[in-house]
User: What shape does this take?
Amino acid sequence: MLIPKRSYAGLKDSYLFYNIAQKVNAYAKENPGCKLYRLGVGDVTQPLSPSVIAALREGVEDQSKAETFHGYMPECGAPFLRAEIAKFYRARGVDIADDEVFCSGGASDELGDLLDLFETQNRALVIEPAYPAYVDANIMAGREIVHLEAGEYNDFLPLPDENKVAEIIYICSPSNPTGAVYDREKLKKWVDFANEHGAVILFDAAYEAFIEEKDVPHSIFEIDGAKTCAIEICSLSKTAGFTGTRFGYTVIPKALIREGMSFNDMWVRNRTTKTNGISYIIQKGASAVFTPQGREEVARLIAVYKKNAQTLMKVFEEAGIKYFGGKNAPYIWIKCPYGMTGWEFFDYLLHKVQVVGTPGEGFGKCGEGYFRFSTFASPSDTEAAAKKLSELFCERQK
Assistant: This one.
């Protein structure tokens, strides 16, 4: 008899962004032709850079000729791209070998697939507010979740707690949704904690390109001891506009060993068993991101979203609304004004000024009473939304 996986019954009725889409679609249906300003889902709006487009076209041309055609690609990534990514790390002072880099279809895919490396009885520690997929993926796997609270009292950057121990530790820095970012001293405490307890940190570095401050590490492997306790997951989605193109990469050091088993070896076996590799064309395009010209173009893309952040932060400052993030991250996390819950504030903004954000409650219990804005909208939409928000807040203060 077929038995469905019962752990799925422990999931919430629907995913956060599905709920948002339902509300927005209902409003749009009732108000046809109404302009919506979408500052909710973290999807980029700027096109791929010229270097990437040129490389993608070159990849397509390669596939049109017998002498340059590529069929199945190596499951762990094309050697030329793994080498480019490892070189990128080494240029930042992090000694990573080519075969410690694994190419993927994106960070979200990898964060879920990596759970294959852990037994179900391993617990997962999630710092909340958190990206909902961390929790949902582990619920699906039937795994116990340990919740570590973050709040204004610890700048949304909690440190290890001996009463909250787990075998898998999720750290997202810069954080989605709060924009908080760990400095070297605080991240070192997490590395030491993981090594002491034999835990493995899944370090989500999807937003590292937005970091401005010098004492903030872009990679967990900048921290001594991290190679024996961490896996780093990265993405070109927010860095280089690959949300619709799909490419990410994961770093698993050979020094990461538990009970005599190498996580690097395990992942090689997993990928060669479960995947057929990433498209040659996509990897060709991704390789352009790591060239000197590609890095300059990426910096210009990031600057667009950082300017959007400044536009929104100015509104909140003038309205006296407390906010976090925006500086080292593409998200701004605000304390909901007027004593509203996140969902009440969502409805208020949607119906009053047609601005769409994300209720903090969707990121866990610690998100109650907060609200997330994304800075990935177009500059024109961001400026228009900022003007509407400013007018709304001013009117409320009268």
User: Anything to note?
Assistant: The chain has two domains: 13-42+294-397, 50-290. The CA atoms of residues 256 and 262 lie 6 Å apart. The radius of gyration is 21 Å. The chain has twelve helices and 15 strands.
